Amino acid sequence: MLIRGIRGATTVTANTRDDILDAARELLDEIVTRNEVDRDNVASIIFSTTTDLDAEFPAVAARDAGFTHVALECLHEMNVPGSLPRCLRILMHVNSDRSQNEISHVYLRDAGALRPDLATGNATEATE
Hints:
- The chain is α/β, with parallel strands linked by helices and about 130 residues long.
- The protein has one domain: CATH 3.30.1330.40.
- It is about 20% helix and about 30% strand.
- The protein has 2 helices and 6 strands.
- Helix 2 links the parallel strand 2 and strand 3.
- It is globular.
């Protein structure tokens, strides 16, 4: 098995605890489902948010979902002028037999604008 990085991004409705956790749960669930991730094969998950999201740590959603022994980290993205606001990203490191081509990166809600080359509608899938 090799370690693979699975990326995902979504936008959060408002800077509230519930909205951040709802968006993180939705994105995490979609990454796990599309990539058939076995929690035992997850090495770590990095959550990042734009600086306008600080009402809760998005990693709380992963702990609530059973990722209790996985290394989790939360951080802020660079505050680049004109970047997508209220954006939450995940980078999951997974031990997998899948090739890079078989990894499905997930872009939900307005985050499809981050990778228009991969976006197809509201929830996008990429096999890059």
